[in-house]
Amino acid sequence: MTSAEFAWRIRRHAIEMTCKSNSSHIASVLSIADIVAVLYNEVMKTFPDCPNNDERDRLILSKGHAGVAVYTALAEKGYFPLNDLKTYCSNGSLLSGHISHIVPGVEFSTGSLGHGIAVAAGMAMAAKVDGKKHHVYVIIGDGECNEGSVWETALIANQFRLSNLTVIIDHNKFQSLTLCEDTLELLDLSQKWESFGWSVININGHDYNEIKTALLYRDMEKPVCIVAHTVKGKGISFMENNILWHYRPPQGDDYFNAIEELEAMKP
Amino acid sequence: MRNEFVEELCYLAKNDKDIILITGDLGFGVLNKFWDLYPKQFINSGICEQAMTSFASGMAVEGKTVFTYSIGNFPTLRCLEQVRNDICYTKANIKIVSIGTGFAYGTHGISHHTTEDIAIMRALPEMRIFSPCDPVEAVVATREAYEHKGPCYIRLGKGGEPTLNKSSVLSCKEAILLKDGKKTAILATGSIVGEALLSAEHLQKSNIDCAVYSFPMIKPIDISSVNYILNKYEYIFTLEEHTIIGGFGSTIAEIAAQNTNSSQVIRLGINDTFCSEVGSQAYLRSFCGIDAEHITKRIVDRVKSK
């Protein structure tokens, strides 16, 4: 399967899941679908039959509200049955709206922003102390960069030269209520992270080759920060760059139109 | 207590390279022995309690036994949500160590008065709470927290606390009878147990033979001993250097509420207010009416009024 096909499947599942459960954050899921697809399809060492294999690479989704992207990727990889995705956010389900470690393959629970990045740094530190070779990836949001703990972690990861840690910023320029720049100006994110001692790469977060190259990049001395320029709602024209879809579930005509668009662009 | 904690941790780390001590840039002159002996197991995360706590969780899920160290409310209230989500929900093998709890840093002001921590930590699922009264209990608490593969909070004093346990302590999991008595008992936790013992001495002048129990572990609490005490004594007082809301006294009162034979429980602690003055630990105990002199009067008034 190509990463384009993998990402398409993530998006297709995501529309179904958020429609059926009448739940939020579809635009955030679509924003990172391509990055998550490349991680699971081409980059990370994974062991679906043995999720806790110590040699696996780790992914923490710090922006836990986009958990559907990871749930669907894990199901596609065989960590649990695809059929389980239908239970998302329903009574009695393990699949909560914000990602939880009780789901096979999920490394850590998040949902409150600014936690996952520090957890990932701790995992990278443990690996470094023990001389283990796996890599730790963490996806954070640009809005999440409002959280002070993100910058605390930026200091810590530099201090301990966590070269086995890669942070991917989903830089879709939107946060909960409006644009990031109209909320708390982030200005030049690259410059900020560089000034904290990180090795920074800017990419188009929807270009599979650029994503793969960046995810495989290692700096022997520094943690890596990938500023992935993305489009919130990517792949469904009427959801793109429209803050409405941070919260609105796709229902009625919106659902059918989204499915129609996706089917038309199936790789 | 803090020195004994560090000594015990050094002893445990001798045979366990997976013990990690993370400090939030505190412990000057206290943590040096561990730092010197086990530099690869010592991390100064800087003044970042929130990231420190999540970072510790990341190390714990990778198999480390992590002790986070700071003072007062910094490793608990400052990063409460990290404690709840990243430590407790994941059952992370982390021991939160706070130094200078209660009024130990009394002159430093309200920011350093650690007087709501038990109530808040107690409300978190999976969290165990150790609250030793002296260096003897502090050593056992450290060891038992280490042996438990899950979240713990170790509430310590600052240093120089007198030894109140005259015989060895086998476990913190059980109530410890420090002084026997009849009809009246004080149940206490933390270094303020010393005030309870002093009060028991004073009470003898009023012909009140008061028992004193130390509870070095608050959650889970030794419920069978609590019920035994509730049934045995006629006058029961709880004492803590902490708000009377939600802490140790509340724990006892909750058990009493389920015990149809229980005597009435009177909770002695800080009365839902911040101190309007600063001062030494001894001064603030007196100011809040929880030193030996004040609690003796409360007990005498209560016993003689009946």
Overview of this structure, please?
The complex is a heterodimer of chains A (267) and B (306). Chain A has helices spanning 3-20, 26-43, 67-77, 116-130, 148-159, 189-195, 208-216, 252-264, and strands at 58-61, 136-141, 165-171, 199-204, 224-229. Helix content of chain A is 39%, strand content 11%. Chain A is an alpha/beta fold and 267 residues long. Chain A is globular and about 50 Å long. Chain A has a single domain (3-264), classed as Thiamin diphosphate (ThDP)-binding fold, Pyr/PP domains (Rossmann fold), CATH 3.40.50.970. The model of chain A has no long low-confidence stretch (mean pLDDT 97). With 306 residues, chain B is α/β, with parallel strands linked by helices. Chain B folds into two domains: 2-155, Thiamin diphosphate (ThDP)-binding fold, Pyr/PP domains (Rossmann fold, 3-Layer(aba) Sandwich); 176-305, Rossmann fold, CATH 3.40.50. Chain B has eleven helices and twelve strands. In chain B, the strands form two sheets. Chain B has a seven-stranded mixed beta sheet with strand order 2-1-3-4-6-5-10, with helices on both faces. In chain B, 55% of the residues are buried. The model of chain B has no long low-confidence stretch (mean pLDDT 97). Classes of the chains: A alpha/beta (267), B alpha/beta (306). At the A-B interface, helix 4 and helix 5 of A face helix 3 and helix 4 of B.
